[in-house]
Amino acid sequence: MNLREHIRPIPDFPTPGILFYDISPLLAHPGAWQATVERLSDIVREHKPDVLAGIESRGFLVAAPLALKLNLGFVMVRKKGKLPGATIPYTYDLEYGSDTIEIQSDAVARGQRVFLLDDLLATGGTMNAAAKLLGSAGAVVTGAACIIELTFLKGRENLDIPIDTLLAYDS
Fold it and tell me: Whole-model pTM?
């Protein structure tokens, strides 16, 4: 199945000059979504993780069904202030300013093998921050995967972990 046929390009979203790659048609098509989950599960299995971590919010859509399929736990990497209880924060720099992501303090155990998932790899900033956050909590981040990679933004160059993607876009 050609997954690219189920990605909808939307020009000028969220701001003029940006071409947004919408995965909604992929999620809405049972065959395309099943093929996506199957292909990602093959990638994840190679890394032998104990738990999957999804990055807010579309990463949850990717990681949760994979965790269920592979009989693994699922951890949410969320924006600051979205998780109840004690959390571990990680603040990272953006082009203009900074942002903070968090996990619950008991989300991962020391030495636990974690694999990161998101829908899209752009600059790699959030993926890198999530890997560092999980590492600071004692986890071993074995790699990451996304459905889409915007190769022209060179995000994989900003990562210290292996990354696999299903589709690459050059613009």
Answer: 0.96
